[in-house]
Amino acid sequence: MISATSWVPKGVAKSEPAVADPPSKEEIEEIIKSGAFERSRDGESEEADEDMDLDANMQGDKVSQALTVADALGKTSKKTTSGTDAITVGLEELDMEHYDEEDESIELFGTGVGDLYYPSNNLDPYLKEKDDEDSEELEDMTINPTDSVIVCARNEDDVNLLEVWILEDSDSGDINMYIHHDIIIPAFPLCTAWLDCPLKGGERGNFVAVGSMEPSIEIWDLDIIDEVQPCMVLGGISEKKKKGKKKSSKYKKDSHTDSVLGLAWNKEYRNILASASADNEIRIWDVAAGKCDITMTHHSDKVQAIAWNCHAPQVLLSGSFDRSVVMKDGRIPEHSGYKWSVTADVESLAWDPHTEHSFVVSLEDGTVKAVSGVSYNPSAPNLLATGSTDKMVKLWDLSNNQPSCIASKNPKAGAVFSVSFSEDNPFLLAIGGSKGKLQVWDTLSDAGVYRKFGNYSRRNKPESRS
Prior knowledge:
Low-confidence stretches: 43-59, 66-70, 72-84, 102-115, 459-466
Number of strands: 29
WD repeats: 253-295, 364-406
Radius of gyration: 28 Å
Structural class: alpha+beta
Strand content: 35-45%
Organism: Quillaja saponaria (Soap bark tree)
Region (Disordered): 1-27, 33-52
InterPro entries: Apc4-like_WD40_dom, PWP1, WD40/YVTN_repeat-like_dom_sf, WD40_PAC1, WD40_repeat_CS, WD40_repeat_dom_sf, WD40_rpt
Distance between the termini: 19 Å
Strand order of the largest sheet: 1-3-4-5
Protein name: Transducin/WD40 repeat-like superfamily protein
Number of helices: 7
Helix content: 10-25%
Oligomer: single chain
Mean pLDDT: 81
């Protein structure tokens, strides 16, 4: 499933991302010391405690596997034994000690086509083919300034990933989409927020903050391939103890103590990141300093969603399972703020980018039931997209405070968890859902949308894209 999506502004990503250096011995020791492996294996260890009686069967499976490999090599023994003796016999028959020795019947230096001599590498078809492959691979890895980049938080078969997708926008109107690279992350991702605060020096960066089932917030550098560690971690568990069947955790200073459900980066104050958690709290972080500056406790249940006001960047909106929406000014966190009661748990919310005083909130069982994501169009006033667990994406005209649905689509993404309009291509909508495949809808391809909002686009006519 795709749980969250974030657009990266055009031209920000490095054209040729760097490849990460392998972790040093000291870094590996630090990872082990931090207990990250132990935390990731907690569930496995509990299952292992219940499955101790299966050890004998597993040992038998190893014996069978060794003998099967030996049989495939034509060296199966006629002896049948059990336990460690059988494993020893199987390994002996594989003759691994002489694995690297060449068979005398093999001719190492033949006189076939491999002996042909070419006066130039350009004339050697084998080298030329290799050069072509390398050139194509380099071209695929290059990110052009005109390319759109989307980061997807994805889970599949207990593997948690950040996928960096490239959308090549061509003059023909067709979009070529592919995964540029991915990053394996340790915990199930729940939310993301792109940010450009220069965490590694310079003027700007290309980072994504990830909230997960863990109480920590990880910030990853999107310009590095094969990275194994985040460049920064905010909060988290510092120590985990087990006494008998009971477990207790010691958290880092000012850390959340439960899952991080929502993140919001402040575009005006670029070092500021807000986080919402299942621990009922909101925290305001200075990512440049790597510390929490403000903690807000005005909700009485899980805080699901937060958003900074586009026009008044000190103002923060939050929505909770306590069935309330609260607006607060970050400069006076002690003030109780302004509160609105709603009829169900808040799933998502968003400020209207075209007016300072309007926002929308999606509820678990509102008029549009089970809406799990909302996104305002950054170019066209009153155009709102919603995604739902009913597998549908709908586009709404909010003119005159009388919402009307002008288009709907089943993007075949499964239950929809995330919808997001692009800032650079305002009518492209990224969609992520339970099927785990990123979808992009050019909303102007719908006649109703084009008729109502086409004048806000630079295009002269709608193009068919999906």
